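1st attempt posting a full record on here, be nice pls
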Amino acid sequence: MLTPSNITAVILAGGEGRRMQGADKGLLLLGQRPLVAHLLERLTPQVSQVLINANRNLERYQAYAPVFKDANTDFAGPLAGMEAGLRHAAHDWVLFIPCDSPLIPNDLAARMASAITDINQIAVVHDGEQLHAATALIHTSLLPSLQHYLDQGERKLRLWYAQHQLIPVDFSDTPSAFTNLNTPASLKALEASQQL
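the predicted structure (as tokens):
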């Protein structure tokens, strides 16, 4: 049975932050600490290893955890970060979390792990209304499939998932835990709500 002690977590911070006016989202401050620091605080007790996928400000991220870049340099989206994460992880199972989701539950890894029964499955968070496609648990054996998909010029996460057995993991009891801070307004709203 898969346990969180056999999981590497990867914080996906490699995007361009277009909706955040080009800001490096993982380094934006929330309650006077960067988003990546909030995630590390929640993730570190849950898994065996935490890594950061980033494509800029690498030295700043290295102050928090080991950092690696995408294989290609054109900001190819979360799948490029996932591909790099599957290559760099110390464990066979890799839990991916976007850097703009600082409220993830303290039992995220355990609940994701308990959903898995086969290495060909991909567990993805479902909040009761929608999938949070970038918050996923993936086995490293799927790396060749992902590399082939990216080599074809494909970038859509859900289309790659459709090639595999997707397991939605029910987090309808904590839907706000997967709030994405995609805009300056959403960041301000979370600070004002004092959910930290």
